[in-house]
Amino acid sequence: RLERLQRIVSKLQMESGLCEEQLNQADTLLQSDVRLLNAGKPPQKAAEIERDLDKADAMIRLLFNDVQTLKDGRHPQGEQMYRRVYRLHERLVAIRTEYNLRLKSGAPAAAVSVPLGQRPRQELDEATLRYLQDLLAWVEENQRRLGAAEWGVDLPTVESHLGSHRGLHHSIEEF
C-alpha cells in the first residue's frame, strides 16, 4: 500500500511540474497577446492560450484525484501535495481570469472607442458564459471534494484538514 502511494507521490511531482510548464506557456502567450492589444493590434495566440488552459485544467483535475487518493491513504505527503496542486489551480484561475478579462471581453483599443450600446455583445456574452461555467465547475469540484473529505480521528489530522479548508475559504474570499 505504501509503495503504491509513493508511486502516486512521484507521479504527482512529475505531472505537477508538467502542469506548471503548461501554465507558464499559457501565461507567456497571454502576455504576448496583451502587449499586442496594448499596441492596438489583434491578439494572435488566443486559441493556443485557451487550449493550454484547458489542458492544464484537465491535468489539475487528475492531480486532485491523485491527491485525494493520498489523503484517503493517510500518506504523510498528502497535505503537501494538496497544497502544491491547489497553488497550480489558483494560478490557472488567475491566468484564465486575465485571459477572459483582457482578450475575450473585447478589450482591444478599437472596441473601446465603440459606444457600449453599439458594441457586439455575442462574443462578450459567450466569453462571460464560459468564464462563469469555469467558475461554477471550480465551485462544484471544491464542494464535492469537501463533502467527500474525511476529517480524521485524531487532533493533528483534523487540524490539517481544517487548515486546508481555511485555505480554500481564504482564496474564495480573495476572489
Q: What is the H-and-E element order? A: HHHHHH
Low-confidence stretches: 107-123
Global mean pLDDT: 77
Derived from helix and strand composition plus strand pairing, the structural class reads: mainly alpha
* Strand element count: 0
Q: Indicate the overall shape.
A: elongated
Strand content: under 5%
Separate helix tally: 6
Report how far apart the termini are. Answer: 38 Å
- Mind summarizing the main beta sheet? none
Radius of gyration: 19 Å
Helix content: over 70%
Summarize the model shown:
With 175 residues, this protein is mainly alpha-helical.
Which key terms come to mind for this protein?
single chain; 175 residues; mainly alpha; 0% strand; elongated
Commentary on this structure:
By secondary structure, this protein is mainly alpha-helical. The protein has six helices and no strands. α2 (46-72) packs antiparallel against α3. It is elongated, with a radius of gyration of 19 Å. The termini are far apart.
Write the layout of secondary structure elements.
Elements: H1 2-38, H2 46-72, H3 78-104, H4 109-112, H5 122-148, H6 155-174
Helix pairs in contact: 1-2, 1-3, 2-3, 3-5, 3-6
